[in-house]
Amino acid sequence: MQNGTNLYALDISAASFSEAWGGPCTEGCVTLARIGEDAWALGDSKRPDVEPLRFTTEELDAAGIDPARFGLGA
Q1: DSSP secondary structure string, 14-70?
Q2: What is the pLDDT of residue 58?
Q3: By CB neighbour count within 10 A (0-12 exposed, 13-18 middle, 19+ buried), where does 26 fall?
Q4: Alpha-carbon torsion 18, 47, 23, 64, what sign?
């Protein structure tokens, strides 16, 4: 949780998702958007109907996901 905030309570309707740089996008492309100071939404461009998962920066780091790979700063 981000400072006691439920990540899924954050509004992501205006979030701007970026695809990861490099590699082919054949089975599904991971997308990432910053949705708060320490909050991220991770989606799949091939399945836009599925709600993106949400993570803190610490959780992204633990999973080995680098926002810089998406052209985003942590």
Answers
A1: T---EEPSSS--SS--EEEEEEETTEEEEEETT-TTSPPEEEEHHHHHHTT--GGGG
A2: 94
A3: exposed
A4: positive
Question: Within 13 A of 54's CA, how many CA atoms are on the CB side?
Answer: 18
Which amino acid does the sequence have at 30? V
Tell how strand 30-36 and strand 39-44 pair up.
Answer: antiparallel
Tokens of 20: 């990861």
| Binned average pLDDT, 10 residues per bin, the chain of 74 residues | 73 91 66 94 90 94 92 81
Res 3: pLDDT: 55
